[in-house]
Amino acid sequence: MSEFDLIARYFAALGPERPDVVLGVGDDCALLEVPPGQRLAVSIDTLVSGVHFFADCNPEHIGHKALAVGLSDLAAMGAEPAWATLALTLPAPEEDWIRAFTLGLGRLANVHGMHVVGGDTTRGPLSVTVQVHGLVPKGAAIRRSGARPGDAVFVSGTLGDAGLALRRMLSGEPVAPELRHRLECPAPRVALGRQLRGIATAMIDLSDGLAGDLGHILTASGVGADLELERLPLTPQVAAVVAATNDWSLPLTAGDDYELCFCVPPAHIATIGPLAETLGLPLTRVGWIRAGAGLAARAADGGRRTLPARGYDHFPAAVDGAD
Which domains does the chain have, with CATH numbers? Predict the structure, then answer.
């Protein structure tokens, strides 16, 4: 099929119709209506074969994850998903692959009321770029820079599952289906992000590991934090690895969790338990914001360790001291 046949058949009607889409796929630009009193939240992510997913990954899962990572960014700002654009680079126009890919992307778009309004297809090494657009009431966006000493640090869900799946896949070990699902089909916490408007002082999604992503909040807010390692929410599989090795890198630095880390002032801490019950999602206090700088962790025996406030980096070679 030609590029235009592909667009017409698979990409022209992804996601539900929305009244704020004046013009969608099929012209040089989409025309979108931003409602009065709303601000536009925009984020973009690229997934590359061999870097973000294995070459033999189910294309339905690739489509899901390509949109999920952007939805997670919107969730971290407390934004409501609205529109997306897609740039897809394909080695060849294999219809079975494209059909499965659009099934995964379209299903998640429908769940969150997001309409795909445009994009581009081209030939080359497999990569997927999705730009997401969301709406948040003026003054209601939750940024990284609002954390204050005395705030409690919470995380949603569990940590380290995706990292454990990736570790085992790379080493050729068997991987439990639920762990692989966490890696390839993360669940963006969009409803939680909306509910935390007016409650959380700062928030970020956990794409690069708790230590690194919380570190971004600390830097932006000009504060420090203490984590309580024994309070980190772990599945039995991750807890078993930590217990056997005393290595906390899975929940702290492995990344790809796509949970939310957020800070809550003392006056609102009591609201988090009922919110967790309403959403059916564990929300766990894992530490406290303090004055000063840096990220430290306290073990169950009272011992403290300083953590590097850095997560996954695509270009890890430091430029400091370079010729």
Answer: 3-137 (3.30.1330.10), 144-307 (3.90.650.10)
